Amino acid sequence: MLGSRPLVKISTIQHDSPRGRWTLSQWRPEHLAASVEVVWQSDGSVWEPQDRHYPSPSVELLVNVSGDRYRLVVPQGAEFFDDAWLAGVQTGPVVTDVPRHSTVLGVRLTPAGAYALLAMPMREVAGFVANLEDLVGRAARELTDRCRHAASLEERFRVAAAWVAERVSRARGVTPEIAWSAGQIERSGGQVPIAKLREETGFSKTRLVAAFRNQIGVAPKLYARIVRFSCAAAMLEEREAPLTDVALAAGYYDQPHMNAEFRELSGLTPREFVARARPDANTVFPMSF
């Protein structure tokens, strides 16, 4: 901390590929680690008319700092986004029509952070993308205006972090049993047996599912699938490797099981996923799928 203000350590990555050219800046606010994974900003141009994102164990809050509106193609939710919006825990791909050039600020929330920030059952936003104003009222407009009028990137990051911190500080949090259970799923890469969670928490199957959907957004078994998929997707994005190795490392029974999960959760085969994630990669897979 620098006085009463958190130190903002910004990392910047330049992207230049067949998908477009943009700058990605990121800050991980340590004082909000329980609620925020990363605050980021993307500024630049994309050549593709649509953007595609995949299920992950997080909730994304976005602010359109500058640029034309976004249009949601899938899943359900508001059709257009001009200012600020939020994507709950997703069970399938999110596809949007995007402007050619834009500056977007994002806050990637942990499920616990999103639950505290929204102060509402997370099942109501799971699988949806909604205008932030519909969820938190005029506070969404205040966030958008402050971000747009920030004099620098550092100030914009501080504004977003302070807005989240203020809302989280006065809200109830995830209960200890659900926080522990979600943490076990995440730390195990989605491989912890759900029966073990019930045994350790003393919750019945019905009670655990209900509490998990209320505070995280989806049932624990589905959350574990999302975490496992996210781990496999990260491996495929980062390096070339035989698909069988990736499947086993991510905890799938075999490659066909991973292939089926990719089709259901991303709408793509693993080959298609890699082609989109790493368009410059010249990957040769040892098995067809």
Summarize the structure.
The chain has 289 residues and is of the alpha+beta class. Helix content is 41%, strand content 24%.
Tell me the layout of helices and strands.
Layout: E1 11-17, E2 20-27, E3 36-46, E4 50-53, E5 59-67, E6 70-74, E7 76-77, E8 80-81, E9 84-87, E10 94-97, E11 101-109, H1 111-118, E12 128-131, H2 132-136, H3 139-149, H4 153-169, H5 176-187, H6 194-201, H7 205-215, H8 220-238, H9 243-249, H10 255-266, H11 270-277
Parallel strand pairs: 7-12
Antiparallel strand pairs: 1-2, 2-3, 3-11, 4-10, 5-9, 5-11, 6-8, 6-10, 9-12
Helix pairs in contact: 1-4, 3-4, 5-8, 8-10
Mean pLDDT: 92
Structural class: alpha+beta
Shape: globular
- Radius of gyration based on Cα positions: 19 Å
Please report the distance between the alpha carbons of the first and last residues: 50 Å
Describe the model.
This protein is α+β, with helices and mostly antiparallel strands. The chain has 2 domains: 11-169, Jelly Rolls; 176-277, Homeodomain-like (Arc Repressor Mutant, subunit A). 41% of the residues lie in helices and 24% in strands. It contains 11 helices and 12 strands. It has helices at 111-118, 132-136, 139-149, 153-169, 176-187, 194-201, 205-215, 220-238, 243-249, 255-266, 270-277, and strands spanning 11-17, 20-27, 36-46, 50-53, 59-67, 70-74, 76-77, 80-81, 84-87, 94-97, 101-109, 128-131. The strands form 2 sheets. The chain has an 8-stranded mixed beta sheet with strand order 1-2-3-11-5-9-12-7. A hairpin with an 8-residue loop joins strand 2 and strand 3 (36-46). The protein starts with 10 loop residues before the first strand and ends in a 12-residue tail after the last helix.
